[in-house]
Amino acid sequence: MKIKHISIPTKVARPGMTIGEVMSECVEKDVPGIPYMDAEGNLNGRFSVRHLFLLCCIPEDIIHGAHLLGDDIEHLDFPHMRADELMAKSVDDFIFPDAIRLSANFQAVKALAIMEQYNTGYLFVTEGNEYQGVVTRMSIAKAVIAKECFTE
Questions:
Q1: Which of 9 and 77 is assigned the larger pLDDT?
Q2: 150 in any annotated domain
Q3: What is the total count of domains within the chain?
Q4: N vs C: which end of the chain shows fewer Cβ within 10 Å?
Q5: Within-domain flag for 9
């Protein structure tokens, strides 16, 4: 099964977009990230929901001690970021330079292997320099369940 048949078309993040605009696209399309296209029209990085949360919402101490915390942590003094302030920020400061791109003609099993190799749950699908969409483990799983995995 080629990944061009199972990729999820999305918009790309562009300079000056807000985090709210980009997050809305990720949520609407149910993808963990989308590529970033710079002012020259080149795919030049990615926006990742996971990394945004790591940078803005989860103190590192909480990550390291999560297994020790009880259900109620309201009494702990954490800096809070208001969602409306975060959503209004420019996405430009939250772009990661690494963005794995695969040819639309790659087989899904190779995409899965690359996801494992790079410890990620999604990859960007391109045809030449043209962005086609995002392939995720879940988009592959949906194709397997629908028995579309036998299509060329």
A1: 9
A2: no
A3: 1
A4: C
A5: yes
The answer to whether position 51 is within a domain reads yes
Kindly report, residue by residue over 137-149, the tens digit of the pLDDT.
999 999 988 876 5
- Measured CA distances, 68 to 62, 73, 109 (Å): 9, 11, 38
Asked, for residue 58, whether it belongs to a domain, the answer is: yes
Q: How far apart are CA 43 and CA 35, in angstroms?
A: 7
Radius of gyration from C-alpha coordinates of the chain = 17
For residue 36, the domain's CATH number is 3.10.580.10
* Amino acid identity at 27: V
Structure tokens at 123: 């990859």
Predicted TM-score of the model (pTM): 0.81
Find the domain containing 104 and state its range: 3-145
Alpha carbon distances (Å) from 59 to 50, 56, 108, 132: 13, 8, 36, 35
DSSP 8-state code for residue 129: T
Angstrom CA distances, 131 to 29, 40, 100, 115, stand at 15, 14, 12, 18
pLDDT at 150 over 60: no
Work out the pLDDT band at 15, boundaries 50, 70, 90.
very high
Residue 33 CA to residue 25 CA, distance in Å, equals: 9
DSSP 3-state of 110? helix
